[in-house]
Structure formats: C-alpha cells, structure tokens
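Apologies for my clumsy wording, but could you write out the amino acids of a protein and the tokens describing how it folds?
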Amino acid sequence: MSETTPRRLSLRWLTLGEIVGVAAVVIAALGLWENHREHVESVKEHAAELAAGALKSTFLMTGALDRDSDAVRLTPVHSDQVIQTQTVWFPSAVRAGSVETTGNPRLEARWIEDGLRGSAGKAKQGRVPVGVQTVYIDDGQTKTDTAVYELAYSLHPRFLLGDKVQLEGLSLARRGVTGNLQSAVNGLWSGGRD
C-alpha cells in the first residue's frame, strides 16, 4: 500500500485588480439598496400627499350648539373653505319647503319645532334627517356639496305651551347625495319612523 500524503492547500493572494472588482460589486450593491430605499420613501410621501389633498378637498361640516339662539352653527372642518349659501331640506312631515341661508350657516329649532311636536309622537328625543346643499369657496373656486346630516333633538314639556324643541348636535349621514334632496330626506325619515 502506498501512503498518501495529505495535500497542502495553497493559498493565493488576491491581486489588486480582484480587490478593486470586489469593492466595486459591494459599492454597486449598496448604491442599489440606497436607491430602492429612496424610491420606497418617495412613493410613501407621494401617497401621503395624495391622501392629504383628497381629505382637504372633502367638504365636511361640524355643528356647534348656540343655546342662546336655539340653533346649531355650521362651520366647515377645513378653515380655508368658506360657506357662501346653503339650502336646507327637512322631511315634509316636519317642515314643508326649504330654508335658505346666506353668510350665516345654521339650523334653527324654530324652523322645525311645530313639525316635530306633531310627528315625534311620544319620543322625547330623536334625530331628524336634514338635506343640505352648500355652495362654498375652496382654493378660489366655487364648489357645491350635497349631503344628508342627522340633527339630534330633544323635546322638553312646558306648562300650557307645546313642548320646547332643543337641538343637541349634528352628524353626517350621507355624502355626495345625487338627485332630489327632499326625496332622500323623506325616505330616511319614513324609514326611521317605522
């Protein structure tokens, strides 16, 4: 039998050209990773800008109670939107005809108190749908929004007088309502009264 001698591995030193080549590959990989990371960040920023722009262009109102005048004062959520006029529809059983406001957006209890006293039955609190068409200025352009809100109210008995209607607050029911707002409001009122 012949003896085999273990072979010795020979180590080879890298040449300067090979070191430069490996360094170039590493630098290219780092550059590719950095470009990918910047691209992902720019896509996120662009999506956030689009979402903020869409939210800004949306018209929403809030209602603040004004106990002195028995009204709910309406203001846009975005302070750079300015309400010009509003046409308000209540259910026909509560009030026949619409109400128009100019420069002082509000919902007043006196507009609906007679109708609520007669149609509310024994309920001492509830919500009445309100169709609102708002003409407003946004970014220098005149725009129109149509929506249905729910106006919360409560009835308070008074001696020898009819119940006092007190408005409680406002919440959005539907945005971008198309067609006849009076019909939309009547449908919600009759649907909620069953």
Q: What stands out?
A: Residues 155 and 165 are 5 Å apart (CA to CA).
